[in-house]
Amino acid sequence: MSGASPQAYRPEIDGLRAIAVISVVLYHFGVPLQGGFTGVDVFFVISGFLIGGILWREHRDTGRIRLVAFYIRRFRRLAPAFFTMLFATFALGWFILLPFEYREFAKSAIAATVYLSNVLFFRSAGYFDTVSEEKPLLHTWSLAVEEQFYIVLPLLFIALAWARKSFLLTLGIVWIGSLIACIVLTPNHPTATFFLFPFRAWELLSGVLLAIYVAERRTPIELPASVSILGLICLIASFALIPAGEKFPGYLAVLPVFGTVLLLLNGASNNVVNATLSRAIPVFFGKISYSLYLWHWPILVLALYLRGEFGGPIEIAAWLLVCLVIATLSWRFVELPVRKSQSISGRMIFGGTVVASGLALAISAGVFKQNGITTRFTETAQTHIGATADFLQDWSRCEVHADGPFKGLELCPIGPEGAPKLLVWGDSHVRALREGLDLASHEANTPGVIIWRAGCPPLFGLEKVENSATPSQNSACGEANRQIDVALSQMPSLETILLVGRWTYYWSGTGDGLDEHNEITVMASADPNQPQTEALHEAAKTTVERLMSSGKKVFVFEQPPEVAGYDSRLAARHHALSTVPFSNTKTIDTDMNLSDVADRQDGFNGVWTALEADAKIKIIRSWEQFCDDATCSAIHDGIGQYFDNNHLTNSAALRIRNVFEPIFESNAQ
């Protein structure tokens, strides 16, 4: 035969695409559909089914895979709408995104262009990472997974399809291995199993194996309508019941995958489910599903960036309509003309894709190199914009110990090389102080080391449960502190320990102002029912006494005043976007009454003051660096001092580094 037998058009697959894309879009726009994100899993199975079927029939009928032709078809199908969306988002981002977000957008554009955005978003999921709602290309992670699948699957066909049994056995083994790895690793590595191809491969291969089974059947498959109904029930249950979080994908992803397989398997059956999916409206949404998926997320991100939050159901409906209109235009005037045109050759498609990719990479690299082009905005906006990026630091000296007493813990040297004399132990406030501590250590010629863990009080004998942390992160706090307790005895060079923390957060159990939604419960390991403040009081005394008994001098850094209503990103956004159409940014407070600061922070401060009065510790005072007699400010001499309402910027840490002089003077004695 001269070519592979074509696959007949199946309208119910477009209807199935419609269900998938609508569930994802509604979920992202906040419509109560807690498992709507599983529509992506439906897409994975459909993609595997269609692409796997094409490749299998081509090899079966011709004995080979025309790799170049396959990729040209993929480029023709996917590239035009993708690059249209990408360049349009670049243009809108120029007016809307702040420099740091624009820089990060450029970085993600590079990754998306080379089909690695899933790897980027996996690697960048960290404590200070931009939140999901500020990443216009976050949704391209699933496209990257599919593109990686398009690369791997044809090569597998070429390598193994000459021996049908070996090929099918290999696919089966990979399917089982991927599924088992996904289920086993999700509880402890949910970010990896969510974003990375090896743990999603089983979903795509479910479609591939089904396509091979269907292609090799001599007669059409017509099962009872109950099979299709069961498949639809599985999808509805997935959309309605599966919660977002660290349990997904894991075993939970089996439900939407199984449901999709059933619907695809019984697609030829004349039943009410297939008839409904084949109607004009579902088919239309299926046809525009790629464009709708491409466009809905950047529209949502940029709209929220401008609006802060939506005003209610009517505004959400309006933005959904915008998505639908733009997706329809993209499908009609970008996707279809390129896909259907007989005058656009494969060479033109390849050349156009190369040129568009090169242009995207060049623009992205330029924006990234210029740090998002700060000069687009006013001087006032630039003050706050500077603070948004003034937390990036060099952690290249850090090392996670593979063995020894600190096995599994990250230690970050500061100051000159040498055995550490100073240990700075704390939470994310240590991270914020890092630049100032490092320079102060160099100036005092005193080697030191930093150990920090976000949201974890640097005190012995405590456990914590924080609503913004995962269960594994919560349990790791107490485990790490117990390990540090034992390991300190094996660092004979240590002379001084500086404790740093957001003490008032642990004392009160909540954030303040803009982060009042953050909640933490701190409890004594020995008595979880002990009141939180009592547990903290006892832990502070116990920790200090234990450190003193080992011959260490103990210093405590007074938590800088919280400026409850300040966030550099929101302030920058307000000053940068207030004149942009449709913007609804809020005025952000840069000041805080000193009396209000004292009311909130005096609780734990009283514990430290009592220990200082007993000559057990020295407190490093910070308030006078940010406050006058009445007011504390997030701005000093026109320079942002706070990243958010409680973390300092690098500039602030460097400016106040002289407050650490008593620590180094004690080491010199």
From TrEMBL:
It comes from the Bacteria. It is an enzyme of class 2 (transferase). Residues 397-662 form the SGNH domain. The chain crosses the membrane at residues 12-30, 36-56, 77-97, 141-160, 167-186, 192-214, 221-242, 248-268, 280-304, 316-334, 346-368. InterPro entries: Acyl_transf_3_dom (IPR002656), Acyltransferase_3 (IPR050879), SGNH (IPR043968). Residues 11-331 form the Acyltransferase domain. GO terms for biological process: lipopolysaccharide biosynthetic process. Its EC number is 2.3.1.-. Pfam families: Acyl_transf_3, SGNH. The keyword Lipid metabolism does not apply. GO terms for cellular component: membrane. PANTHER family: ACETYLTRANSFERASE, ACYL_TRANSF_3 DOMAIN-CONTAINING PROTEIN. This is O-acetyltransferase OatA.
